[in-house]
């Protein structure tokens, strides 16, 4: 049997776009036409007055507007409970306007230089030092990026992520993908002490040094605090090239800093376009007219939902490419909102896969759900539904009418939006026009502002994560890290009080 030929299936537009990227002229980001074609809409058709108990009403939102507008002004002025230690953590707020061309050029130059000398790039980090990079990378590249040829990847090396878990099998499997290849890494950690990242770095660094000695230092980039921390110290000692996580920007708000930009440039993603998207949403999200400001409306609807007893936000998308964006939201919102008994639990879902699983509970389970759809309006590719001699599945009408897979995929959101609403689940849709760096930038900024407003509404600081710190401390103590002996003793004492049950 001969290998499969893709008869009557066109070329893959995602691959074509990967190749075009970096080769075409810069697009007119500030033109009205470009903005209109890339406008993110928030569709609220199914948000108000869903049947059953706990419906959200327009009046609920109207009542909240004065409080929201106060929060909006406070955020603009960087006022309120926003500090980590004595540093106000709103540096991300005007970053889209402040980021310099020189900074972007430097990143692109280093990325190009390193990319030319390696086959594989590995990004090491966890939480905010990881999720935004992978979510942007996945949103904008081929699902099987690493299996494509270098040319099909637009000249970029393969891209892997490590340091985001402690699973030795996962790590070992990834090493198989690196074997025999020239590698470059970016180790990202603001604190420089996060266990997962540090252990992954130690293993990879040892391998690199054992293979290439001091020459490997050139292939190691460190993205960390400007002056302090263990990683900064080591980078200085070894002479690694360093990139900076600003003091006043927390991990989950850092995708537009060197944290995100270095990895994205390495994957040949247009970082200027990414910045332009952030800039445009900065303009839109500073609007003082509540109903013209999607960040404020989004924040208001989520807050009202929570007040009305919604505890889970299903963030569902019809695009595999946007599933990781939903995962980015899974961090941004709960890590910022989940303090003092507050906040919605974010559940990322890829439809229609999940509709055949917990979709049942969304339709008919406990009515404590808000649903947010990330609807990709235009996929890269069009796959026609073929005409067949027999019509045993009864779907011949689709091909008769010239409809394609994308048409059906759109209904994967339209159908649940309608049905879930009828079942008592209020929902809203964020319409993302197409897969490009501009739209990702717009989306991230819209959500960052929304979650910052949520902090004011809940009355807590959304820019710190004491709960995460608690686990980090417990983990240090449990692995016996020197300096955490007291924590270890306390844990042991507490464990002694717990009755161990194993069945
Ligand atoms: O948003 C955050 O601040 C966290 O998710 C951090 O990014 C995460 O804990 C990783 O921390 P670090 O960059 O210090 O290794």
Q: What are its keywords?
A:
alpha/beta, Rossmann fold, 503 residues, binds 5-phosphoarabinonic acid, 5-stranded parallel sheet, single chain
Would you give an account of this structure?
With 503 residues, the protein is of the alpha/beta class. The protein has two domains: 21-78 and 276-458, Glucose-6-phosphate isomerase like protein, domain 1 (Rossmann fold); 95-269, Glucose-6-phosphate isomerase like protein, domain 1 (Rossmann fold, 3-Layer(aba) Sandwich), CATH 3.40.50. It contains 19 helices and twelve strands. The chain has helices at residues 13-20, 32-37, 58-76, 95-98, 101-117, 131-140, 168-178, 195-212, 230-238, 258-266, 271-285, 294-307, 320-337, 359-364, 396-400, 405-422, 437-458, 466-478, 485-497; strands at residues 41-43, 83-84, 87-88, 120-124, 158-162, 183-188, 220-224, 241-244, 312-317, 345-350, 369-378, 427-434. The protein has a five-stranded mixed sheet, sandwiched between helices. It has a five-stranded parallel sheet with strand order 5-4-6-7-8, with helices on both faces. It has a two-stranded antiparallel ribbon with strand order 2-3. It is globular. The termini are far apart.
């Amino acid at each position: 049997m001969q290998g499969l030929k893709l008869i009557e299936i066109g070329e893959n537009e995602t691959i074509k776009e990967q190749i075009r990227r970096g080769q075409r002229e810069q697009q007119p980001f500030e033109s009205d036409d470009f903005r209109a074609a890339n406008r993110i809409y928030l569709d609220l058709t199914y948000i108000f007055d869903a049947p059953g108990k706990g419906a959200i009403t327009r009046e609920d939102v109207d009542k909240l507007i004065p409080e929201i507008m106060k929060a909006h002004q406070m955020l603009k002025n960087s006022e309120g409970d926003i500090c980590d230690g004595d540093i106000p953590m709103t540096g991300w707020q005007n970053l889209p306007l402040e980021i310099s061309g020189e900074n972007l050029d430097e990143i692109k130059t280093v990325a190009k230089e390193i990319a030319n000398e390696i086959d594989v790039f590995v990004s090491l980090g966890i939480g905010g030092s990881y999720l935004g990079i992978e979510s942007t990378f996945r949103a904008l590249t081929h699902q099987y990026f690493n299996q494509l040829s270098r040319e099909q990847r637009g000249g970029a090396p393969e891209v892997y992520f490590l340091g985001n878990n402690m699973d030795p099998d996962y790590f070992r499997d990834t090493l198989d993908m690196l074997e025999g290849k020239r590698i470059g890494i970016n180790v990202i950690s603001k604190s420089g002490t996060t266990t997962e990242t540090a252990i992954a770095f130690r293993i990879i660094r040892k391998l690199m040094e054992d293979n290439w000695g001091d020459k490997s230092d050139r292939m190691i980039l460190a993205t960390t605090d400007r002056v302090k921390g263990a990683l900064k110290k080591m980078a200085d000692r070894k002479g690694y090239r360093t990139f900076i996580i600003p003091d006043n920007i927390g991990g989950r708000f850092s995708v537009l800093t060197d944290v995100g930009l270095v990895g994205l440039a390495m994957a040949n993603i247009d970082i200027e376009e990414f910045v332009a998207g952030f800039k445009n949403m900065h303009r839109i999200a500073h609007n003082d007219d509540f109903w013209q400001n999607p960040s404020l409306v989004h924040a208001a609807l989520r807050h009202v939902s929570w007040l009305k007893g919604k505890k889970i936000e299903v963030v569902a998308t019809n695009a595999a490419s946007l599933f990781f964006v939903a995962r980015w939201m899974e961090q941004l919102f709960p890590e910022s909102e989940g303090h003092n008994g507050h906040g919605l639990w974010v559940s990322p879902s890829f439809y229609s896969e999940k509709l055949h699983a917990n979709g049942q509970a969304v339709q008919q389970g406990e009515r404590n759900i808000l649903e947010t759809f990330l609807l990709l309006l235009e996929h890269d590719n069009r796959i026609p539904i073929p005409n067949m001699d027999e019509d045993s599945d009864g779907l011949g009408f689709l091909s008769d009418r010239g409809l394609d897979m994308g048409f059906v995929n759109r209904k994967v959101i339209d159908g649940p939006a309608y049905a879930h609403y009828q079942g008592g689940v209020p929902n809203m849709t964020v319409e993302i026009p197409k897969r490009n760096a501009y739209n990702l930038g717009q989306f991230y900024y819209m959500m960052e502002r929304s979650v910052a407003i949520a902090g004011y509404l809940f009355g807590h600081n959304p820019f710190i994560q004491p709960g995460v710190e608690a686990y980090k401390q417990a983990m240090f103590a449990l692995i016996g890290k020197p300096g955490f002996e007291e924590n270890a003793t306390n844990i042991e004492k507490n464990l002694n009080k717990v009755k161990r049950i194993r069945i």
